[in-house]
């Protein structure tokens, strides 16, 4: 977790004014949208039987609508009906925010959705039992809170066994797994935790390479972890974690990378942006094939981007996702749409 009011990039930071639930956000300022078609293809369409299926092309498009404020390192999760919840995050001035937004990216609408009891950034979101859990994170120090929304109000529903920021939270098989992260003293946390309710946690395994700031994707009953950071150094390991907590290193990235985003589009995983080193943000994208465990170039984003939130829940047949906010390297309010066409 970046400390408040410091310039140390390798360690993460957020507090801000609250928002009343249900109040529409300010209208987005008009700006020209930009788009680019990546240089590689991904996925396939259902072609005529007996004939090769035409490949799909990755299209990267900066949409016109924006967030009401620039933010990075927030928790995110699906809210149903094509909507998503964005909670907490890092604001300008290295302050942790308690703001919560409900987003409909297809419609380009943003609604303010209350405030967290504990402002956090470098947090993680996971949906469990129809609710979004905002797990851990940090502000002036690392936090272990598990925050949920009941009706229109957010509450603290439980706590992790230890404070943890810079973590991954993923829902698999009716429970949430917590992976990696930082407790304020340990270089990176190895313990893999699991919970069926957000209140009671047990250790179910250990990461072979403990990291912070890894990119992650749920794939069936497993979670892929890409890169991350350890002792201030970006990593190349690709780790595969099963629902039972068994974890192993199965591949290596083309280069060290932390603070990236990952999303499944079609039958492959797209790895987006991130930091090759603590002082540099990249616009590069890579395709990862889970079957062959190989990487191929996937073009570039319109601008470098790290610590962004990924919106995806399968409502668009797994062919569309959005990157919301992030660092370019300064905080941004922009939204980028990724789609296979």
UniProtKB/TrEMBL annotation:
Keywords associated with the record: Kelch repeat, Repeat, Signal
Residue ranges of the region described as Disordered: 19-56
Protein's recorded name: Galactose oxidase
Biased composition (Low complexity): 19-50
Keyword tRNA processing: no
Signal peptide: 1-18
Pfam families in the cross-refs: Kelch_2
Gene3D superfamilies for the chain: Kelch-type beta propeller (2.120.10.80)
Domain of life: Bacteria
Organism: Nocardioides panaciterrulae
């Amino acid at each position: 977790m970046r400390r408040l009011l410091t310039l140390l990039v390798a360690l993460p930071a957020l507090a801000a004014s609250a928002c009343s639930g249900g109040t529409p956000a300010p209208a987005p300022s008009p700006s020209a949208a930009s788009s680019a078609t990546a240089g590689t293809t991904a996925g396939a369409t259902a072609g005529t039987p007996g004939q090769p299926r035409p490949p799909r092309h990755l299209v990267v498009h900066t949409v016109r609508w924006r967030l009401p404020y620039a933010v990075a390192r927030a928790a995110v999760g699906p809210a149903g009906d094509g909507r998503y919840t964005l909670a907490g995050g890092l604001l300008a001035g290295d302050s942790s925010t308690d703001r919560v937004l409900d987003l409909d990216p297809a419609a380009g609408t943003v609604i303010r959705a209350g405030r967290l009891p504990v402002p956090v950034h470098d947090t993680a979101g996971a949906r469990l039992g129809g609710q979004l859990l905002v797990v851990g994170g940090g502000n002036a120090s690392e936090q272990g809170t598990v925050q949920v929304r009941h009706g229109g109000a957010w509450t603290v529903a439980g706590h992790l066994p230890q404070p943890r920021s810079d973590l991954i939270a993923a829902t698999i098989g009716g429970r949430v797994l917590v992976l990696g992260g930082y407790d304020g003293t340990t270089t990176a946390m190895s313990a893999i935790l699991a919970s069926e309710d957000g209140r009671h946690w047990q250790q179910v395994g250990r990461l072979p390479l403990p990291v912070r700031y890894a990119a992650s994707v749920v794939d069936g009953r497993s979670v892929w972890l890409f890169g991350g950071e350890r002792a201030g150094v970006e990593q190349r390991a690709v780790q595969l974690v099963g629902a039972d907590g068994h974890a192993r290193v199965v591949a290596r990235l083309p280069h060290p990378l932390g603070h990236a985003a990952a999303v499944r589009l079609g039958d492959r995983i797209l790895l987006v942006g991130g930091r090759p080193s603590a002082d540099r943000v990249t616009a590069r994208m890579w395709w990862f094939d889970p079957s062959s465990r190989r990487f191929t170039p996937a073009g570039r984003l319109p601008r470098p981007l790290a610590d962004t939130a990924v919106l995806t829940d399968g409502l668009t047949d797994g062919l569309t996702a959005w990157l919301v906010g992030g660092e370019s390297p300064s905080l941004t309010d922009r939204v980028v749409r990724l789609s296979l066409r």
